[in-house]
Specification:
Elements lengths: L1 E2 L20 H38 L4 H28 L9 H20 L3 H29 L5 H30 L1 H26 E3 L10 H6 L9 H29 L17 E2 L6 E2 L3 H29 L1 H18 L1 H14 L5 H43 L6 H7 L1 H20 L3 H20 L15 E3 L1
Antiparallel strand pairs: 1-5, 2-5, 3-4
Helix pairs in contact: 1-2, 1-4, 1-5, 1-6, 2-4, 2-13, 2-14, 3-4, 3-6, 4-13, 5-6, 5-9, 5-12, 8-12, 8-14, 8-15, 9-10, 9-12, 10-12, 10-15, 11-12, 14-15
């Protein structure tokens, strides 16, 4: 059994960090629960929620404001998550539960996730769907807030680069599975039924990963120097954060950086599907050929499978980029690697304008042709080429995202006090969850406005530029004086 240093006084100013053996399997066990979290959110907001939202939102918001309704829903839920996660992390920092500081919160939160998934999957109205989504965000972030503090507790300071890579790979592979599987299920079983089956799979994955994490990552009971109530933890949640300006600036840069790929993934599906209404002047702008439904005679565009393939390739490139960037960050510095990731992401985001322009020009020509089949036969090869460009530029965003994620966690832990890892890493969710809330809320209005998706992709480029500007203000500091909480990995 390997442990971190048990005597905090052994680590002081001018003392080298105590190096401890850390077997490779420990990285896997510590990062495993991230797979479940990422499996849930990998496809929920971009593949599952749009399907469940559309029929329930239409009677309330109208057919032309579906994305606005989804933006409001995701915005409200994610704003709640922004504050729940640091609160849960702060409370867990002072928890004296016999099972340890983190695992009891993970168990409680996961049980609540199961209940929320049932509500979402069986919702008969938009308001019930909204309630289930808010509940899901609440309980997921209780578990996640405590869990994020577990890794800094366990991982020795000299192993953060590899731990960051393990974390990124676990997140990205979970996101890959979560993005691909819902689209396949929707294509095989239908949109709604496929989404419901996916929610069942999410519950199963949470059960397995939670059991393994709780079983193999063993915490020693923590004896806090002071007891703190939930109310006090909430009041003190931001206390002393201003003493760590580099961490604050890094979180602002993280917020802007992650808003870019979050915005792209949230709106890929409606972007690919465009519109199939022949009376609409934008008719034909879908990247997927419209099909005539036999029972109704109406046209339908379903990009579920294509979206899963695209997101799968995007996340695969992200996973492949994670490890080499984490290794390079140990040699060349964290900041330099993040700058490179930002440049790659910028090219990918702005580059998405190109396939849209291609298709738009082709549609102008197709309108002059007679007959639906003639028009579609003309558009099909252009759609294929445009779709390849979407994949290419999306892969650039993906590799940028994976590179950033593999370096960012190590960078953040370099800048925070180790004895308050739960609170500070929970506060980092103000950037992580906040970017999704901001991206969904702003993106919904932009996509439904006259700016459309072209405006959305320009906005993505602006996010990357602003993130890089903020990052110039962050110092790169490693090896600060820290205190370690005794935690064992069995």
């Amino acid at each position: 059994m390997q442990t971190t240093p048990t005597n905090p006084q052994d680590i002081g100013p001018g003392s080298p960090p105590v190096l401890t053996p850390f077997p490779s399997r420990n990285y896997f066990m510590i990062a495993l629960y991230w797979f479940a979290i990422s499996f849930l959110w990998g496809g929920f907001l971009s593949v599952v929620l749009p399907v469940l939202n559309e029929p329930l939102a239409t009677p309330i918001f109208g057919p032309n404001n579906i994305e606005t309704a989804r933006g409001i829903m995701t915005g409200l839920g994610l704003i709640i998550a922004m504050f729940v996660q640091p609160l849960a992390g702060a409370i867990s920092d002072r928890s004296a539960h016999p099972m340890g500081r983190r695992r009891p919160f993970m168990i409680f939160g996961t049980l609540g996730i199961f209940a929320a998934l049932v509500i979402i999957g069986t919702a008969g109205s938009w308001w019930i769907l909204l309630a289930g989504y808010i509940m899901l965000q609440l309980l997921d972030n209780i578990a996640q807030g405590a869990y994020q503090g577990l890794m800094p507790d366990v991982v020795p300071e000299d192993r953060r680069g590899k731990a960051s890579a393990a974390l990124a790979i676990s997140q990205l592979t979970g996101t890959l599975a979560g993005a691909v599987i819902p689209g396949i299920l929707q294509g095989v079983f239908g949109k709604v039924a496929g989404s419901q089956i996916d929610l069942v799979l999410v519950g199963i994955v949470f059960s397995i990963t939670l059991s393994l994490t709780v079983l193999f990552v063993k915490e020693k009971p923590y004896q806090p120097t002071e007891k703190i109530s939930a109310f006090t933890a909430g009041i003190n949640m931001f206390k002393g954060v201003s003493h760590y300006p580099d961490f604050v600036m890094l979180m602002l840069a993280r917020f802007l950086f992650l808003t870019a790929p979050a915005t792209a993934s949230l709106f890929f599906k409606p972007f690919l599907e465009g519109t199939s209404d022949p009376n609409n002047p934008k008719f034909g702008l879908s990247f997927i050929r419209p099909t005539v439904q036999g029972s109704t005679g109406q046209l339908e565009v379903n990009a579920g499978i294509s979206l899963s393939i695209i997101l799968g390739i995007v996340i695969l490139t992200a996973t492949l980029a994670a490890y080499p960037f984490s290794v390079l960050s140990e040699k060349t510095g964290r900041k330099r690697m993040i700058f490179l990731a930002t440049a790659i992401g910028f090219v990918g985001g702005v580059g998405l304008l190109v396939p849209g322009f291609m298709l738009n020009s082709a549609v102008d020509v197709a309108r002059g042709l007679n007959g639906f089949e003639v028009q579609q036969n003309y558009l099909d090869p252009i759609r294929s080429n445009a779709l390849l460009l979407v994949i290419f530029f999306g892969a650039l965003i993906g590799s940028s995202w994976g590179a950033f994620m593999s370096v960012d966690w190590a960078y953040a832990t370099d800048l925070i006090p180790a004895d308050e890892a739960g609170r500070f890493m929970g506060l980092s969710n103000l950037a992580t969850a906040g970017c999704q809330a901001f991206g969904a809320f702003v993106g919904g209005f932009v996509a439904d406005s006259f700016l459309g998706y072209n405006g959305l992709f320009v906005l993505i480029g602006i996010y990357y530029i602003l993130s890089a500007c903020l990052l110039t203000r962050v110092r790169e500091t490693r090896g600060r004086t820290r205190q370690h909480v005794p935690v064992a990995v069995g």
